[in-house]
Specification:
Elements: H1 4-50, H2 60-64, H3 71-87, H4 90-103, H5 107-125, E1 133-138, E2 145-153, H6 156-161, E3 168-174, E4 182-188, E5 193-194, H7 199-207
Helix pairs in contact: 1-3, 3-4
């Protein structure tokens, strides 16, 4: 015999399973939808910047028949490759040297150009450089530990001026949940505890505010081989 209490319990159980399935679907759909939306938006932004620079007589839309998204991005990639290829040659280097000499004589423009160039070279021209290891350091005081990324051994005036007997390491300490911002700190090598986890896993740990560990089963146990 089914009682009203059993019916309410069955209804609550059904609603609970429905809610669980809905949340699982959100977890699956949301990353895919956001990724597609970001790519679609980025491609559209590049198209809106590149296509107006092309003369009307050779607009791709006239030959394709429709305003196909991504054409501007393809043109931009081809143009960038061609410019890079020319810049590596003798003629390209001469033109760049002449242009930079011209810009250096413009008070405001040279400051903007030098700043943008330095950022571009740091991000793109030095892609072979990356953080060496993830580590733990006591920051902002003793007894409090923070995740950091070892970049390199300190050199020059920084290493010569710091009062330390051993090697001085430069460590980038990221902020949560945005690891692209943070602090550049210099620590004696003996005060740094290197971690076995990869830099990517440490970054995930920072971004998730400690919710995603390299070993998702049990953070207190070492990962299985």
């Amino acid at each position: 015999m089914t009682t009203p209490f059993d019916e309410e319990k069955h209804k609550a159980s059904f609603l609970g399973r429905l809610r669980s399935s809905f949340l699982t679907g959100i977890v699956v759909i949301l990353p895919i939808a956001l990724t597609i939306w970001l790519i679609w938006t980025l491609v559209g932004w590049v198209d809106s910047f590149v296509l107006p620079l092309i003369p009307d007589t050779i607009q791709p839309e006239k030959y394709i028949g429709i305003n196909l998204r991504g054409v501007g991005l393809i043109i931009f990639l081809i143009f960038t490759v061609v410019v890079g290829w020319i810049a590596k040659g003798l003629l390209g280097r001469s033109l760049i040297h002449w242009g930079e000499g011209l810009v250096s004589r413009m008070p405001v423009v040279r400051s903007i150009y030098s700043g943008v160039k330095q950022i571009a070279e740091t991000i793109f021209a030095q892609t072979e450089r990356s953080f060496e290891k993830a580590c733990l350091i006591e920051y902002p005081r003793r007894g409090i530990w923070a995740i950091g990324f070892i970049s390199t051994t300190a050199k020059g005036e920084v290493a010569d001026t710091a009062a330390t007997t051993g090697d001085l390491m430069s460590v980038f300490v990221p902020t949560t949940p945005n690891p692209t911002s943070g602090f550049l700190l210099f620590f004696p090598k003996d005060d740094i505890v290197e971690l076995e986890m990869s830099v990517e896993d440490a970054a995930k740990l920072v971004i998730s505010a400690g919710l995603v560990y390299p070993n998702s089963k049990d953070p207190t146990q070492p990962p299985e081989d």
